[in-house]
Structure formats: structure tokens, C-alpha cells
Specification:
This protein is of the alpha+beta class. It is built from 23 helices and 13 strands. It has a 7-stranded mixed β-sheet. The protein has a two-stranded antiparallel sheet with strand order 6-7. Its EC number is 2.7.7.19. Pfam families: HD, PolyA_pol, PolyA_pol_RNAbd.
């Protein structure tokens, strides 16, 4: 294995300890990388580890990706690795990428690129390059434009990426206006990296994002959705979301978020809904369980919970009313918000289950506030559980997170009330197995009791018996059958 010392590149001069630490972080994969580097060198080709894996090594993070770049064309890549990987695939061959698997490691090797862009559609004309420096300048940020040549371990940093890492700063290798013109999605990546890494965007980058926010419209909903999801799943999404709102990018693909910045009336009769939503998101994140925890702990990071926390109040701008007595109301904002959330997430091409779950949580997030001092009947508690269904653990956390009052006594009162509700839910679940609540007569028994065949009427009868089960709890088959017959006779008389 080569000596883990940077070559005499001026980029690394006073950063030797950082480089040595980064190489140590890469130690588990260095034998594999060195072997690949030697294979390419033997055929007269360059090979370098590039981008995220290099950045993460300097940050002391373990990267799951091994991204390599080379002057070799796809056919030459395959020739250089022939007989080496356990498997390979060339689904990205058109863009110069060959994927490999060696043991548990997945490697992607991509030919140097020197693409040109159609700036009206963001479709690149794929052009292969011959120079590492030219390949690095086309990358999104300087911190992702560092490379380590293989097998020599020469550190290449022509754009000051390591200085940016130390300063926790995001800059583009080329002028940000040019970089974002080539690919507007890079503006979302800036927000995502600010959330994932805790970096500040440079002033010129922020200015370019603001100036070019409208160009995001040419990016597909799927690509935008993926970046938004990655941002929300980051350790501290607030920084990235704030950047999206402040630069106007959010207006393009999730305008409901900046719309939460309702003007504060002079008497301060309602809270800042935008700030409240960010706090709720942060509090919901704090209530997530460990990644390897059981489902009922809501293992984090949980996209459904985080989307619901962010969007739970998006119905407020449309429902705000100033009351004659001086207050402010948002009647039915949870129902309006659920519709808005459903529409927005569908437009962003989220899957049906995610859309359904987030909209349902938004719809249910106020239900607890009717609980008061525990006046709910057991029937109301059962309905709370059954309406939430498998979303109940998330609803627990969303409801608790929705308390952002600075009134300590009020906060403690709400917390105690929800503690009491959860105790009642646990008791009823143990007594009645609420998670699997269903009528005490099945479809066949209902049909037999009423002398009817399967069809819409049988569905009505089933729904009626379900409401009996929720209202009265378990009453036994005979009593359920008697109530069903009474309902049927009453229905016949109407």
C-alpha cells in the first residue's frame, strides 16, 4: 500500500494532519481502492476517488458510496476490471458510469465528464473528458470537488474545498450563476447540504440562488421530491428549509411553506405559524426512536412524521379569520390542511402510502384538543385509536410536538392530559385489543342474521356493527346480533 502522505500538491501544504486523518478513515477500503488503482495504472489510465467519499473522510464520517472517476471510457473500464468484481452492471453506461460489487462494497466508476447543457431544459449533452481538473470544475460544490488519485494517494484540491470544509462553507467551483444555470437542482442541494452538514452557503451562492430561483421550474418533480426528502431526513432540517424559504426556492415547489409567514398583527393575537411549524418539526424529531427501535417507537429519521410536522398547519392561511371580539380563528384548518398536503405531495410525486399517511396525520392533529381534562368517553378514545390506525405512534408524537407555548403551566397541563390519554389507550388496548377492532359478527354471520346476500347493504350493516363496537366495546355476539336486527327493522321502517 502506498504511503498515506499527500503528494507535493500545493493544495495540501498545511493540511497534512487533516489528510492523514482522512486516509485513516478510509483504511477499511484502501486495499480495495489501491488494487483498482493499480489495475487502471497498468493500462495507462488515471483513477481517483472523488466527491462525497473524500469529503466525508475529512469530516470523520463513513461514506456508504465509493465514487471513482477516470479518463478511461466505459469499454476500457470494463477491460480494466475484468475478472475482479463479483458482479458488474452498466445501466449508466450512456453517462460513462459502470457499477461494480466486490464483497460488501459497491463501487461506481465514471469517465471524466465535460458536459454542455441546454439551459432551457437542463438536458446535458454528455461529453467525456480527459482531464481530472476539468471534471472537478463541473461538480456542484468545492467540498465535493476534491479527489484522491489512486494508487498514489495524491490529494487534488484545485478549488479550495478543504478550506471550505474547515470554514464549514458552501461555494461552487465555478461562478454560482453559471453552476446553477447548468443545473438548477444544485440550488436544492445547497439547502440539503446545509441541513446535512451544518454548512453556511457563501453570500454569492445565496445571492445566485435568490436570483435564479424561478429556473427550478424546469426540474422534474421527482428530482425535487428526492432532494426535499433528503433534506427533511437530515439531522437539522431547519437550516435548509429556512434557506429554501428565504431565497424564494420554496415558492416554486412548496409555496404553502412560505405562505405560513402570516403577517403578525399589531396586537400579536396569534403566533408566528411559520416559526411554530419549524419548532414542531424539531420537537417531532426529538421524539423519534432510535433507528433500530421497534415500530411503535417511530424509528428515526421518519419521513412521514417529519412531513406531517412541517405541513400540519398549512391550512391556516386559508382559514384565518379576525373575530369581532378581537381574537383570531382558524376553523377547520386541519381539514383544509389535509387537502392541501395531499395535493402538494401528489404534485411532488410522493408514493400513495406516504401521501395518505401525511394527509391523515394533518387531519387528525387537532383531535386531541377536544380531550380537555379527560372528559372523553371510552367510545371517543376507541375512535381516536381506530381513526389513527397504524399511524397512532406518529400521531402521539405529532400531537405532543404541536405544543410550542411559552406558558409553562399550559404546556405542563397539556402534557399531563396527553399522558392521561395514552394511559387510557393502553388500558383499553390491553382489555379490548383495539389495534384489531372489528364488529363482533363477521360478514357471513351478518348475512345469515339478516337473510341478505353480499353487497352494498351488507357493507352498511358491517359499518353499523363497527360503530356499535366502538361505542359500547365488546358486548358479545348475542347482544350484537340483537342490535343488528333492531337496526335492520328500523331501517326498513324509514
Amino acid at each position: 500500500m502506498p504511503d498515506a502522505t499527500p503528494a507535493t500538491s500545493p493544495d495540501a501544504g498545511d493540511r497534512r494532519p487533516l489528510f492523514e486523518s482522512a486516509v485513516a478513515r478510509l483504511a477499511p477500503v484502501l486495499p480495495l481502492l489501491t488494487e483498482l488503482g493499480e489495475r487502471f495504472a497498468a493500462r495507462g489510465h488515471e483513477l481517483a476517488l472523488v466527491g462525497g467519499p473524500v469529503r466525508d473522510a475529512f469530516l470523520g464520517r463513513t461514506s456508504l458510496d465509493l465514487d471513482l472517476t477516470t479518463d478511461a471510457r466505459p469499454d476500457d473500464i470494463l477491460a480494466a476490471v475484468k475478472g475482479w468484481p463479483d458482479a458488474h452492471w452498466d445501466i449508466g453506461r450512456e453517462f460513462g458510469t459502470i457499477g461494480l460489487r466486490k464483497g460488501t462494497h459497491v463501487v461506481e466508476i465514471t469517465t471524466y465528464r465535460a458536459d454542455t447543457y441546454d439551459r432551457t431544459s437542463r438536458k446535458p449533452e454528455v461529453m467525456f473528458g480527459d482531464d481530472l481538473a476539468a471534471d472537478l470544475v463541473r461538480r456542484d460544490f468545492a467540498v465535493n470537488a476534491m479527489a484522491i488519485r489512486l494508487p498514489s494517494l495524491e490529494f487534488v484540491d484545485v478549488h479550495g474545498g478543504l478550506d471550505d470544509l474547515v470554514a464549514r462553507r458552501l461555494r461552487t467551483p465555478s461562478a454560482p450563476e453559471e453552476s446553477f444555470a447548468d443545473d438548477p437542482l444544485r440550488m436544492l442541494r445547497a439547502a440539503r447540504f446545509s441541513a446535512q452538514l451544518g454548512f453556511e452557503v457563501a453570500p454569492e451562492v445565496r445571492a445566485a440562488m435568490t436570483e435564479r430561483a424561478g429556473t427550478l421550474e424546469m426540474i422534474s418533480a421527482e428530482r425535487i421530491r428526492d432532494e426535499l426528502s433528503k433534506l427533511l431526513l437530515a439531522p437539522a432540517p431547519r437550516a435548509g428549509l429556512t434557506l429554501l424559504v428565504d431565497t424564494g426556492l420554496a415558492d416554486v415547489f412548496v409555496p404553502e411553506l412560505p405562505a405560513l409567514r402570516l403577517e403578525v398583527d399589531e396586537h400579536h393575537r396569534h403566533k408566528d405559524v411559520y416559526e411554530h411549524s419549524l419548532i414542531v418539526l424539531e420537537q417531532a424529531i426529538d421524539l423519534e426512536g432510535p433507528a433500530d427501535g421497534p415500530p411503535e417507537s417511530v424509528p428515526g429519521p421518519d419521513l412521514v412524521l417529519r412531513l406531517a410536522a412541517l405541513l400540519h398547519d398549512i391550512g391556516k392561511p386559508a382559514t384565518r379569520r379576525f373575530e369581532p371580539a378581537g381574537g383570531v380563528s382558524f376553523h377547520h384548518h386541519e381539514l383544509v390542511g389535509a387537502k392541501l398536503a395531499r395535493k402538494r405531495l401528489r404534485e411532488l410525486r410522493y408514493d400513495k402510502e406516504t401521501v395518505k399517511a401525511v394527509a391523515r396525520l394533518v387531519e387528525l392533529h387537532l383531535r386531541f384538543h377536544g380531550y380537555g381534562e379527560g372528559q372523553w368517553t371510552d367510545s371517543a378514545v376507541r375512535r381516536y385509536v381506530t381513526d389513527a390506525g397504524p399511524l397512532l405512534p406518529r400521531l402521539h408524537r405529532l400531537t405532543r410536538s404541536d405544543c410550542t407555548t411559552r406558558n409553562v403551566r399550559k404546556a405542563q397541563r397539556l402534557s399531563r392530559a396527553y399522558d392521561d390519554l395514552e394511559v387510557r389507550i393502553d388500558r383499553l388496548q390491553q382489555e379490548e385489543e383495539l389495534a384489531a377492532v372489528r364488529p363482533e359478527l363477521n360478514g357471513n354471520e351478518i348475512a345469515e342474521a339478516l337473510g341478505i346476500k353480499p353487497g352494498p347493504v351488507l357493507g352498511e350493516a358491517y359499518t353499523y356493527l363497527l360503530s356499535v363496537r366502538l361505542d359500547d366495546g365488546p358486548i358479545g355476539k348475542d347482544a350484537a346480533r340483537a342490535k343488528l336486527v333492531d337496526w335492520w327493522e328500523q331501517r326498513g321502517r324509514e
